[in-house]
Amino acid sequence: MSQDRELDVRELIPRDRHTQIFETYSALEPETAFVLVNDHDPKPLYYQFQAEHTGEFTWEYLEEGPEVWRVRIGRTAA
Fold first, then answer.
1. If exposure means fewest CB atoms within 10 Å of the residue's CB, which of 7, 23, 24, 66 is most exposed?
2. What CATH number labels 5-75?
3. pTM > 0.85: yes or no
């Protein structure tokens, strides 16, 4: 099993973060994932995934602050 790619968005300006995250998600093969690293709880991002990709993604908190959040975001099987 290969290690998931890490996408650290903490240095990106906020308006560019979701674009980068969704581009990374779109490039995933089925049953693969990446680890999002963020400086706050990305709960609004979860709701956006839920609205736009219902049943097509997985969401697993690996670390929950207070300074760093890590979330494994995956693409489900086709």
1. 66
2. 3.30.110.40
3. yes
